[in-house]
Amino acid sequence: MRSAIGAFVLSAATTIATAGGHFQTATSHRILFVGNSLTAANGLTKMVEALARAGGDEVEIMTVAVNNFSLEDHWNSGEVRTAIARGNWTFVVLQQGPSALPESQALLRDYAKRFSSEAQKAGSRIALYMTWPPKTREADFDAVSESYRLAARHVDGVLLPGGDAWRAAWRLDPSLQLYAEDGFHPSRLGSYVAALTIWRGLSGRTVIGLPGIDGVNPETIQLVQKAAEQQFVSAPRRQEFAALR
């Protein structure tokens, strides 16, 4: 059964410890997340909120995540378009499935463009949250990465390369368990890596030194923070990202 998740997140996540003073300037932003169970899993948006608040930033987040939904499904339902028009969002973060196949890539670009047009009318900007392929199709990582990169470029949006951060983390430690048991959804650590990447991309501020999550040792937290940070500091890719201003 498909179940929608659409509620404002107004308190810090309990899974991430609080810490202050990481960012130099506190800001306030509203972010709308649109996706499916890859966004809903493990309280991803609450992790993003807690990372922001750890540095003194105020964020207000709304999530519309429906199991098995594509961006085409979200467009046809009308809920997201209504939320964009009413919300005055700083960013609208879009997530589809892996979108490795050519037809899926075309749909991702098409509906990212449609949502971008709606967001521009409301004074908001689109960001693309790149996911990952199923564990059984790890050879598709490059295609997933390219699909989201092209979609972000197509709408002059912000690229949030969660799947690329996973690969960077594995290069540092191949034993990291980033997939959940089903081999597709993220583990809590996998969602944390994605949350780091999302906040790094939206804020433009380093995630090094931000709080970790319960049950994960500090060495692993430092490693995955480094992996997320790497996605935004390498010279060939700097121009693909834009941050909150």
**Mind telling me the CATH class?**
Alpha Beta
Order of strands in the sheet with most strands? 1-3-2-4-5-6
Instruction: Give the total of domains.
Output: 1
List the total number of helices.
Answer: 9
CATH topology: Rossmann fold
Largest sheet: 6 strands, mixed
**Could you state the order of secondary-structure elements as H and E?**
EEHHEHHEHEHEHHH
Describe this structure in a few short sentences.
The protein is an alpha/beta fold.
Q: What does this protein structure show overall?
A:
Helix content is 44%, strand content 15%. It has 245 residues and is of the alpha/beta class. It has a single domain, classed as 3-Layer(aba) Sandwich (Rossmann fold), CATH 3.40.50. Helix 5 (102-121) packs parallel to helix 6. Residues 1-25 and 235-245 have low confidence and may be disordered.
Write the layout of secondary structure elements.
Blueprint: E1 4-9, E2 28-35, H1 37-40, H2 44-54, E3 58-66, H3 71-77, H4 79-87, E4 91-94, H5 102-121, E5 125-130, H6 141-154, E6 158-161, H7 162-172, H8 188-203, H9 218-233
Parallel strand pairs: 2-3, 2-4, 4-5, 5-6
Antiparallel strand pairs: 1-3
Helix pairs in contact: 2-8, 5-6, 7-8, 7-9, 8-9
Structure keywords:
single chain, globular, Rossmann fold, disordered C terminus, alpha/beta, about 240 residues, 6-stranded mixed sheet
